[in-house]
Amino acid sequence: MTESGRRSLVSRRAFLATGAATATALAGCVGSGGGSDTLRVSTWSGTNKTVFENVVKPKYEDETGNSLEVVGNWSGIVPKVRQSPEDSPPFDVTIGGSRITYRGNQDDLWEPVRYDNLSNSDKLKDRLMQYEAAKTAVPVSYGVHAYVYNKDATTWTPETWSDIVSDEASNVTLSSAFWLKNLMMAAVIDDSEPLAQEVYDRQNADALFDLIEEVPTTSFYQGAQDLWTKLNQGIANVGHYFFAYGLAKAASSDKLNIGVTVPPKTTGYIDYYHVVRGSGKREMAEEFLDFLISSELQTAYAKEFNLGMSNTNTEYPEQTREQLPTSNDELGDVGFRDFARVADYSSELNKRYRKLVQNN
């Protein structure tokens, strides 16, 4: 953090200390949503929310004197903001992938982040800043797709994504949800263009769907719990999932002996954080985002959850370093989703994918 940033935080603490009586007197006028120094932040439910509550919130509140209200969401983020009054959004800052970023941009739901106000922005990895979404929102973390499998049941050991269509492959489960992540896996298998670029040309869709149909899929799972149930019951032995969430489940499960493998060339997603329009807290939100991408906070976050972080100076646990690409050079082997490039034909391919799922 810059010296001026530290002076700003010290000044805020001094103001809060000297104005405590006044703040208390005014608290009843503010309403149940919290005081003027309360920031409402939406993040993914589950492990991310837990990390926010146990790590991000106490560190932020201690450093700034502000209060942080953490809201968990898995879906409906854009509709919630869109349907709210323009000057009273449901949260001040929200997480989102490239699809949420794109859809929110269509309705001007985000205040473009002013990177000049972020003292840590020069430490963000170039590889994460090259996407259109980064013009509006700050890339904070990222995850990659991996194999998760029942070590006690599988008869083959997956390593590359091509292994999923090999003669040895069997008993696979894939997500029934979003078409793009599975077609990106197919693009890595096809390998005719680098970093799964095939998905960004509509003319390649038939070939990619053909590859998906070659996978020996015995089921499609609906959500994480369904995935673990299928692996536990032997309905499937191997699944396509997320590295960090797979490790978290492996660490907490006493029923499944879960293996997690990240192929050397894989696909992934970026978690962007947006300043929501109309909250009246744009500067406070940007101060929070600057805190969120500091090397100290990112290291603390990475220690609790095996995600990749956007700050180049982040320190990682050994288990993360062993499998997750963490440097700019290593990220050259990860194809990240870029929904803006498939938006024009996403609805069409989503319907086709839904039909494929239903037919299986």
Describe the structure.
Helix 3 runs antiparallel to helix 12 and helix 7 (179-190) packs across helix 8 (205-214). Strands 1, 2, 3, 4, 5, 6, 7, 8, 9, 10, 11 and 12 form a twelve-stranded mixed sheet that branches. The chain has helices spanning 3-18, 20-30, 47-64, 77-82, 98-106, 126-129, 179-190, 205-214, 224-233, 243-252, 282-292, 295-304, 318-323, 346-359, and strands at 38-44, 67-73, 93-96, 110-111, 138-150, 172-175, 217-221, 238-242, 258-261, 266-276, 308-309, 334-336. It has 14 helices and twelve strands. The longest helix has 18 residues, at 47-64. With 360 residues, the protein is an alpha/beta fold. InterPro entries: SBP, TAT_signal. This is Spermidine/putrescine transport system substrate-binding protein. Residues 312-329 have a biased composition (Polar residues).
Keywords:
D-Maltodextrin-Binding Protein, domain 2; 14 helices; alpha/beta; disordered N terminus; globular; 41% helix; 12 strands; 19% strand; SBP; 360 residues
